[in-house]
Amino acid sequence: MKRAGFDNIWLPVALLLPQLMIIAIFFYWPAAWALQSSFFLQDPFGFGSTFVGADNYTSLLGNNQYKRIAWFTIVFSVLVTFFSLAIALLLAVKADKVIRGAKTYRTLLMWVYAIAPPVAGFLGILFFDQSTGPMTKFFQSFGWDFKLGVDYNATATAMVIAAVWKQIPVNFIFFLSGLQSIPRSVREAAMIDNRSATGRFWQVTFPLLAPTAFFLLIINITYALFDTFGIIDALMKGEPGNNPMTLVYKVYLDGFRGNDLGGSSAQSVVLMVLVLVLTVFQFRLVERRIHYT
Amino acid sequence: MAQVNLEGIIKVYPNGHQAVETTNFNIQDGEFVVLVGPSGCGKSTLLRMIAGLEDITEGTLKIGNRVVNDVDPADRDIAMVFQNYALYPHMTVRKNIGYGLKNRGMPAAEIDAKVQDAAKMLNLTEYLDRKPAQLSGGQRQRVAMGRAVVRDPALFLFDEPLSNLDAKLRNQMRIEIKALQRRLGTTAVYVTHDQVEAMTMADRIIVLSEGRIEQIGTPSEIYHNPASIFVASFMGAPPMNLIEAQADQGQVRINGYDGLMPAPKSVIGPVTLGIRPEDIELDSRGSVPFRVDILEELGAHRLLHGAVGGQPFTVMVGKDHSARIGETHITLKPDALRLFDVETGKVL
């Protein structure tokens, strides 16, 4: 068999170079720099740094506050990912069945997509406002003295709700287009084979939706871990205090507010490892069970 | 096994489009009925209403003497084979075939035995653990058949099941489906736009046009005694010759040619004269002049396209017949002549 190829090595290298440079400059270089600085203790005024070995890491592991934030991050990510996927899937399944005014309905559901995260956080503040927020009133009607920015659980709840709300439209769009790409006749064949609509959904529709769901799972975990920064920042109004935060927010807080670049870098490295582990896990374990058509 | 009765069935879509006008017909137990017609004639809509995939706007549908208008597709005791096979892409052939049985609460061992039987019958045994994507078109078609057969339903529904196959495979599957239906004795409704499929497979053909039944009959009746100009021109390749003529008390005269021929019916006035291309003989002493413009060689026979009295006309002759382009004469078999009303298109 004849293979198309290049006569010399330089042309392909030259063609690849821009892409490789972008990856090197914007991804590998900062990562290497973070890795390096995580072994140093930086002078807060930038006059120098001292090699401290693994001290930054060991102090992290021994730090109860860090453990607590890591735990919150896990709970937060699981809740945000689960609810934003589940609610979006439910809405998509329902929207898929709408016949009249389908377009309007879908557009309305997608609107939130256009809202920037800090704005979403700000809207969250309005909704969860101590005296006028409708969500605050809602929770108070259940006898919960809801205090955003003061009460740990209240702030955490608000963060989860705002983050879920912001992510639903993205998931909705993907789920809906995924549903619509399932051949009608396959669903009809299932109607003849299975009388239970729930059974049909989980045995036929959902497996065919699985590639979409898997892609969204990764997107949503990444979103919950990293892209919720704006919402968290807005909801705690710049006053960390007793408030919950995610690991990414802690990196920012220690590095830029606390001027502890070494510790902050060590946390970044921990996050990088976490993402690596998650990615390997997702592709090794989850993707294997998915059927791509 | 069951008979099917359609009583005053009407389908109107929410947008006001009437896909099927008042339709009545009965299908006997074990009969193979083909619904044929051009696209948009309502044949698929009718089939989908029988399947329960479309609501019935008006009328009563009975399968095996049970009114099933409001019965779920899964509870109608039917099995359907779709045009694009509609296999579950994430399931193996084994699971595809067994899925309907599993949902009906059949024990796993029994399902396995039935799936094995169906696979054997359709030569699918070695493919049972493959997914549909790893099969050829013909094999997928067989899996779709297997899924229908394994359920042992009262009624098979086929929605243009062969139109995605190449010509050779189509001929082969046509015979296989027909033989299978014969052997199982299951009532079948088969939708197609291919008149050859309709002719070769059906016990009875129902010809549809614009949501209306044009004719119901055996393939032979439909072919030789079409009830309307539509049926005459839709069924048969090449179709029946249809030329304008004048009828006058037992005689008929083709427009553009003065000779008189005996008419099968005694009518007066303009008519459409129909005759099948194979019911015409080339005859140098024949009465009707025929100009041959194009000669189509088909091996077993030849088609001569030309004109009679200035109107397009086709004659089919055997392979032993010498034929040339140019002027000649023909004889029309008198008992093969059909007359149609110019206004209504109905046979006279």
From TrEMBL, chain A:
Location within or outside the cell: Cell inner membrane; Cell membrane
Function: Part of the ABC transporter complex UgpBAEC involved in sn-glycerol-3-phosphate (G3P) import. Probably responsible for the translocation of the substrate across the membrane.
Tagged with keyword RNA-binding: no
Domain of life: Bacteria
Membership in a protein family: Belongs to the binding-protein-dependent transport system permease family.
Membrane-crossing segments per the record: 9-29, 69-93, 105-128, 156-179, 200-226, 266-286
UniProt-listed InterPro entries: MetI-like, MetI-like_sf, UgpAE/MalFG_permease
Name of the protein: sn-glycerol-3-phosphate transport system permease protein UgpA
Pfam families: BPD_transp_1
Subunit structure: The complex is composed of two ATP-binding proteins (UgpC), two transmembrane proteins (UgpA and UgpE) and a solute-binding protein (UgpB).
Membrane topology recorded in Swiss-Prot or TrEMBL: Multi-pass membrane protein
Keyword RNA-binding (UniProt): no
UniProt domain ABC transmembrane type-1: residue ranges: 70-282
UniProt keyword list: Cell inner membrane, Cell membrane, Membrane, Transmembrane, Transmembrane helix, Transport
PANTHER family referenced in this protein's UniProt entry, alphabetically: BLL4140 PROTEIN, SN-GLYCEROL-3-PHOSPHATE TRANSPORT SYSTEM PERMEASE PROTEIN UGPA
Automatic annotation (TrEMBL), chain B:
Record keyword Chaperone present: no
Gene Ontology MF terms in the entry: ATP binding
Keyword NAD recorded: no
Highest taxon of source: Bacteria
Coiled-coil parts of chain: none
InterPro entries (UniProt xref): AAA+_ATPase, ABC_transporter-like_ATP-bd, ABC_transporter-like_CS, ABC_transpr_MalK-like, ABC_transpr_MalK/UgpC-like, Mo/tungstate-bd_C_term_dom, NA-bd_OB-fold, OB_MalK-like
Occurrences of domain ABC transporter (ranges): 4-235
Classification via PROSITE patterns: ABC_TRANSPORTER_1, ABC_TRANSPORTER_2
Keywords: ATP-binding, Cell inner membrane, Cell membrane, Membrane, Nucleotide-binding, Sugar transport, Translocase, Transport
A Pfam family this chain is assigned to: OB_MalK
Family classification: Belongs to the ABC transporter superfamily.
Descriptive protein name: Sn-glycerol-3-phosphate ABC transporter ATP-binding protein UgpC
Record organism: Ruegeria haliotis
Gene name for this UniProt entry: ugpC
